[in-house]
# Entry
Amino acid sequence: MLTLNETHDANLTSWVASANNANNKSSDFPIQNLPFAIFRRKGSKESFRAGVAIGDQILDMAAAYQTTVFSEDRSTGKVRKALKACCDETLNRFMGLGFEHWSALRRALFHALRTGADEESELSGCLVPMADVEYRLPCQIGDYTDFYTSIYHATSVGSLFRPDNPLLPNYKWVPIGYHGRASSIEVSGHSFRRPCGQTKAPDADQPSLGPCKRLDYELEMGIFIGAGNASGEAIKLDQADQHVFGLCLFNDWSARDIQAWEYQPLGPFLAKNFASTVSPWIITLEALVPYFTTFERPVDDPQPLPYLDSEKNRQQGSIDIQLSAHLLTEQMSQKGEAPAQLSQSSFRHSYWTINQMVAHHTVNGCNLQPGDLLGSGTQSGPKPEEAGSLLELSNGGKKPLSLPNGENRTFLEDGDTVIFKGYCEKQGHARIGFGNVQATILPALTDSGE
# Structure
């Protein structure tokens, strides 16, 4: 069960000095976090394997498995089994073991990494500096579903595409989602080509094919499924969190001009399937327990149907995760300037909770599998400056954004790098972060291949 326990104690510190907020007030990875990623040393031919972030270091799970710290006479069977699964080149097997194994390993790591632990002498040799590694996708993503959980984003975008009917009548009754493309999801740090596709200008007689002119980002959370469900068996609302391994930052890039022409009647296609980007670190749901908060639906809105409603979901269905979007233009990069922050919002503004997404996804018997990814949809807040996309911030391209260096943007240009950051902070609890997710836009590939 997801509850507060000793791993959330804000007073405890680690023998890895960089993990302690007293030494680094902006540390994303204190001992209360302990997220998972797949890594290897840069430029090496090592096998990829799981690592756990602690300060500016990574605890190599394969190396830790070889120590006596987690030997049979010093660890439980669940811890040993979980740690062995972390020696794989993906997290899928570990994710599929279920909450009891995830929690057992997280607690064992917490105790071994805290200040004064006898395990320091052995585990210190299993640390790898983050600066020396490269990442790949944390798991094999079999399927990807993108939801649409921000009512503020849905209303803003709807008003641009459908001024007379911005919010469709089913939005307040059902968590809207569509099946996305898993093969084009990449880990943070990659570059991708500006997509080409078919568009139609309002004054044109017919559509044309060419590079996207209205490329946009979408500030989202990614939700990784752990233990799945059998085909035909729905996951109940209050058990859904037992099937969620953890969360990451997620950018679901969007070609708005392609989207405007193609999205009816079946929704996004080429406007979305060319690229998506996830952060390398998955923050476990257990680490986020202190930041669970109440889920509130406006009293005048339709209340969820019984399968999407419970006391537990109302009391702790939302998570207060602070999210921000930043832009580093090519000119900024050349001059060594810092990225410009474009907006900041919170995941707590979602109109639908994670448990509701999972429960609805499976109510028809759909079987989820370890490593499946759910996108939250663009996380815009109630204020204009909390918008999670350029489409909203620029009012559909009508109001260019002025950047600190004098440049303007309505939509993204070649050479732009978009960076998302996320963290949780609450009085009485340690600040934990998500690291960041970033990717850079390259020019479209022309017919000549240039």
Remarks:
- The CA atoms of residues 13 and 104 lie 19 Å apart.
- The chain has two domains: 6-136, 144-442.
